[in-house]
Amino acid sequence: MHIAILGHGIEGKAAAEYFLAKGEEVTVCDSNQGLSLPKTLGAQLGPDYLKNLERFDLVVRSPGISPNIKELQPIRSKLTSATKIFFDACPCPVIGVTGTKGKGTTASLLHAILSQGEKRVFLGGNIGVPMLSFLNQVTKSDLVILELSSFQLMDLQKSPHVAVVLGITPDHLDYHKDFEEYVAAKQNIVRHQTKNDVAIIDVDSAESAACAKLTSARVREVSTTKSVRDGAFVKVDSFTLLDGNEGSIFGTRGNTRLLGEHNVKNILAAAAAAQTLGAPLQHIQSAVQNFKGLPHRLEHVARKEGVDFYNDSASTNPETTIAAIRSFKRPEIIILGGSGKGVSFASLAAEVVERENVKSVIVFGEMRQEISAAIEKAAIEERMQAIKAAAKKKEEPIPPHKLEIIQAESVAEAFMVAKMLAQEGDVVLLSPACASFDMFSNYIERGEMFRNFVLDT
Question: How far apart are CA 151 and CA 153, in angstroms?
Answer without folding.
Answer: 6
